[in-house]
Amino acid sequence: MATEYLPKGMTEEEKQEVIGLCRRLIQTRSYSGEEQGVVKLLSEYMKENGFDEVYTDRYGNVIGRIFGNRPGPTLLFDGHIDTVPVNSPERWTHDPFGAEIVDGKIYGRGTSDMKGAVAAYTAAAAAFLKKHGHDFAGTICVDGVVHEECFEGVASRAISEREKPDVVIIGEASECKIKSGQRGRAEIVLETFGKSVHSSNPEKGVNAVYAMLEMTDAVRKLPVVETPELGRGILELTDIKSSPYPGASVVPDYCRVTYDRRLLQNETKESILAPIEELAEKYMAAHPEGEVRVSLARGQETCYTGEQIEDERFFPAWYFAPEEDYLVQTAKALEEAGIKPEFTHYSFCTNGSHYAGEKGIRTFGFGPSKEELAHTVDEYVELEQLLCAAAGYEAIMQGFLG
Predict the structure, then answer these.
(1) Is residue 169 within 8 Å of residue 364, measured between CB atoms?
(2) DSSP secondary structure, 313-382, as one string
(3) Smallest Cα–Cα separation from 150: which of 257, 34, 32?
(4) Cα-atom radius of gyration of the chain, to the nearest Å?
(5) pLDDT confidence of residue 246
(6) Are 178 and 326 in contact (CB under 8 A)?
(7) Which of 309, 323, 374, 322 lies closest to 151 in space, CA to CA?
(8) Which residues contact 156 (CB under 8 A, 6 or more apart)?
(9) What is the pLDDT of residue 9?
(10) Own/partner pairs for 104-107, CB < 8 Å, 24+ apart?
(11) Do 35 and 60 contact (CB within 8 A), yes or no?
């Protein structure tokens, strides 16, 4: 374990509270668009533990609030409650919804990504309230966000709009290290258009696949962007489709490719599309019979409330230097709790794309488990990590609001 921290300050009752809540969340299936069971469970838990306000918004996000009796900052502990599906349950050696505890690990879908963190910060907020009452300065806000697996940060917009947090703590897996940034994500669509004819006379048509092959070869030769803080900005082809399909004896008149683009700080929609648009213009100048289009993919999902989420698939990167005052304050709070503060950044995308990337809100990540366990067979969270995170969340509350 990275922190080598055992939460000696936690009582056995507090430990079992965190573990029990985590197990109940795992045992409640919540694929994207089906999160209502977990929302009900969290709502009941918050109300039973004296949260001052518990509500759900139009997307179905659940939010709990605890108010201090003095003015101060609003801390938002953020995590998503939807999970990816279990597509091959026969490959699991542990029931994906059993929340079995074996050799110091809780197994199940969403343990690492990221019901462990949601359980840890929700239970930590309840513990903080029991110890301090309302004798603190500011507001504690915890959430359970829907549809993150499909649209990172989009459902979170409703939360930031209402809560206006001063600091956001993303609970995604960090091995109890401080994540001060993340790469973003975009889906770029490249389309080629030709002329369909019988494949016995291909010279009379324009083969859209040949055009696409030329374009994708040119795209692969584009220089890789990179920053010292977040590393490489990846541009990877993830699927290709032609039409008509199947193309028996027909020259395809359409081809579409999707690229996964991992974003770096300060990159915009325009800046990531520009190099590919330039290649498209060069191709069409040399091949006036063909057409090439470049765009961002769009997506639409239906929440369990019936609300529609629709937007372009562009989720910006963000980065804050460890020397920022609020990160120094965070590191101090964790260190005082016995947790060694180490700084790094996420390689994947989180709801921080909205809070930090779109809104510029001071944000950092801190959560249990390892990034690479997300979406895996026999996903798990270590009990030691889970309890470390809970202790860390409570320390952060004390450090900012105490």
Answers:
(1) yes
(2) SEE--EE--TTSHHHHHHHHHHHHTTPPP-EEEESS--THIIIIIIT--EEEE--SS-GGGTT-TT-EEE
(3) 32
(4) 24
(5) 86
(6) no
(7) 309
(8) 61, 78, 143, 145, 148, 351, 354, 355
(9) 74
(10) 104/382, 104/383, 104/384, 105/380, 105/381, 105/382, 105/383, 106/19, 106/22, 106/23, 106/26, 106/380, 106/381, 106/383, 106/386, 107/378, 107/379, 107/380
(11) yes
Strand partners, 319: 181
The amino acid at residue 74 is T
Show the tokens assigned to 89. 């349950």
Mean pLDDT, 10 residues at a time, the chain of 402 residues:
52 95 98 98 98 98 98 98 96 98 97 98 98 98 96 95 98 98 97 94 93 98 95 96 90 97 96 98 96 96 95 96 98 94 94 97 98 96 97 97 93
What secondary structure does DSSP assign to 13-54, as a single string? HHHHHHHHHHHHHHHS--BTT-THHHHHHHHHHHHHTT-SEE
28 token code pair:
């409640």
